[in-house]
Amino acid sequence: MNKAEDIILFSFLLQGVCFGDSSISLPEKIEALSGSCVIINCTFEIPKDKVKHLTESATGLWLKDGTDKPEVFNSKYPKPNHFKGEITGKLHEKNCTTIFYNISSNHNGKYYFRIESGDLKQTYTGKTSTVNVIESPPKPTVKLYKDPDQEEVLEGSSVRLRCSAETLCSSPPPTLTWSFTPRIPLSESSRQQELLISDLNFTATHRHHRVTFTCTITYQLQDKNKTAQDNITLHVQYAPKISPSSGCYRTDVTVCFCEVDGNPPPELEWLLSGRPVSNSSNTSISEERLNSTGLRSSITLHQSLTHTSSLQCVGNNTRGTARKLLQLPPPLTSLNLSSVMTGVAVAAVLVIVFCAITCVCVRLSTKLKAQNEAADTYASLQLSAPPSEYETLNIKRGGDTL
Ligand SMILES: *[C@@H]1O[C@H](CO)[C@@H](O)[C@H](O)[C@H]1NC(C)=O
Ligand SMILES: *[C@@H]1O[C@H](CO)[C@@H](O)[C@H](O)[C@H]1NC(C)=O
Ligand SMILES: *[C@@H]1O[C@H](CO)[C@@H](O)[C@H](O)[C@H]1NC(C)=O
Ligand SMILES: *[C@@H]1O[C@H](CO)[C@@H](O)[C@H](O)[C@H]1NC(C)=O
Ligand SMILES: *[C@@H]1O[C@H](CO)[C@@H](O)[C@H](O)[C@H]1NC(C)=O
Ligand SMILES: *[C@@H]1O[C@H](CO)[C@@H](O)[C@H](O)[C@H]1NC(C)=O
Ligand SMILES: *[C@@H]1O[C@H](CO)[C@@H](O)[C@H](O)[C@H]1NC(C)=O
Ligand SMILES: *[C@@H]1O[C@H](CO)[C@@H](O)[C@H](O)[C@H]1NC(C)=O
Ligand SMILES: *[C@@H]1O[C@H](CO)[C@@H](O)[C@H](O)[C@H]1NC(C)=O
Ligand SMILES: *[C@@H]1O[C@H](CO)[C@@H](O)[C@H](O)[C@H]1NC(C)=O
């Protein structure tokens, strides 16, 4: 910079600070949500010699799309075709901050401010604000904060999901809400709605794997709610977990199965008496991927191997190892078979004996009834309901045998 430029710059600054100038400060571009409101943050300067004219009765005007056009807003004399709004700044304090309500596409355009106060009449053409009306609100942003050297979130580590949103003029102010699918209970969360930042803090578990977290910004407008959302799907690495339903059953062979779930997808190994089992004719293994993280393995054991003391299922991945000892069903022997037969025989005998006893009892009671009838017909009639055909027959026969 040379001296001449220095002097020019200095005098320019001096003019602004000491003598006042005719500059205005307002945002170059503003987005406004249709159906909502817009605030034009605005301050202006006036030449020093005109300051005395600026009073509390000053009028603020807005022109749109050209200084030759009729005003769209007048703080003192609003007209029916004017935009609805108000100057919230104090004009005599050179604050021309304005709010426009009930925004529609008519509000699209370039705005010029004009001040009128006594002899002070000035339109600011140096700077304008361009209002861009949008139909749907801008999307919020969801970010995952984690240990920077981790590719994926590890089980047990703390996770922070932050939703942040640029807000537009709205009454009531917009709100942020979280939702997630599948639904899971969350341990911690926090909200800082005034900044329109919402944090979700929690400790990662396998239940958070592949859960999609959605953050929604909602603008409550007069006739409807307008929303926009962003989402993030969490990927959590976790050690294998063996399903408690894993176990063995017997058909004519012994089949054991083991279900393991883990991320990264685990590998599964069988240990028979502590030794790894290979896929052979005596021990055939089949594997099936249940989903991106789950694996099911079945092992079919030859008869000769079921005497073996233990069968273990081991699942491992880079996060860890899980083991489960499976209870082998007791071997099916000839002794067992004969004991089953004995059981059946005993049961049969018991049934026969029971039937015999019942028979005897029935006969005994009918005999007694017959005796009673013979002894006292009146009493018998009183005590019992009209005898059935069968009973009558029995009684007769009983009478015969007596
Ligand atoms: C308005 O402008 C003033 C001065 O430039 C600034 O301090 C303030 O944060 C602005 N307000 C908004 C809502 O932009
Ligand atoms: C101008 O007025 C508005 C509304 O009253 C206020 O929010 C803003 O802070 C004021 N700006 C300055 C620079 O004082
Ligand atoms: C908002 O503007 C629409 C048309 O642009 C009009 O129908 C409605 O009555 C206005 N609402 C208010 C509260 O001014
Ligand atoms: C959320 O976690 C961040 C750091 O990860 C911490 O600064 C903040 O205080 C936590 N918020 C709550 C409510 O626990
Ligand atoms: C807008 O959302 C609020 C709260 O989320 C709800 O109470 C209200 O009923 C909704 N209004 C409409 C028109 O959907
Ligand atoms: C997540 O956001 C993307 C892009 O915005 C969208 O395509 C997808 O449908 C959303 N998923 C869910 C579950 O909301
Ligand atoms: C399979 O079982 C047979 C007899 O039961 C045995 O001779 C053979 O060595 C077994 N094979 C393997 C691979 O264990
Ligand atoms: C075991 O061998 C059978 C037959 O050779 C094959 O179908 C099966 O996929 C193998 N299982 C595994 C886990 O390799
Ligand atoms: C995958 O399968 C395992 C085992 O059945 C189950 O625990 C897990 O919830 C499944 N994961 C998904 C994402 O469906
Ligand atoms: C699982 O364990 C076996 C031995 O126990 C090992 O060779 C293999 O690398 C492990 N796999 C993973 C993914 O860690």
In total, the number of strands is 27
Helix fraction, binned, reads 10-25%
Mean pLDDT: 82
CATH class of the largest domain: Mainly Beta
Shape: elongated
Overview of the molecule:
It is a single chain. With 402 residues, the chain is α+β, with helices and mostly antiparallel strands. It folds into four domains: 15-134, Immunoglobulins (Immunoglobulin-like); 141-234, Immunoglobulin-like; 239-326, Immunoglobulin-like (Sandwich); 363-402, no CATH class. 20% of the residues lie in helices and 40% in strands. The chain contains four helices and 27 strands. The strands form seven sheets. Strands 12, 19, 20, 21, 24 and 25 form a six-stranded mixed sheet that branches. Mean pLDDT is 82; it is low at 12-20 and 374-402. The chain crosses the membrane at residues 340-362. Residues 1-20 form the signal peptide. This is Ig-like domain-containing protein. InterPro entries: CD80_C2-set, Ig-like_dom, Ig-like_dom_sf, Ig-like_fold, Ig_sub, SIGLEC.
In short:
This protein is α+β, with helices and mostly antiparallel strands and 402 residues long.
Write the layout of secondary structure elements.
Blueprint (H helix, E strand, L loop, with lengths): L2 H17 L4 E2 L3 E5 L4 E3 L2 E2 L14 E6 L6 E4 L10 E3 L10 E3 L8 E9 L2 E15 L6 E5 L7 E2 L3 E7 L10 E7 L8 E3 L4 E7 L8 E9 L4 E9 L2 E7 L4 E4 L3 E10 L3 E6 L2 E2 L6 E7 L4 E8 L9 E7 L2 E7 L7 H42 L1 H7 L5 H13 L1
Helix pairs in contact: 2-3, 2-4
Bound molecules: 2-acetamido-2-deoxy-beta-D-glucopyranose (10 copies).
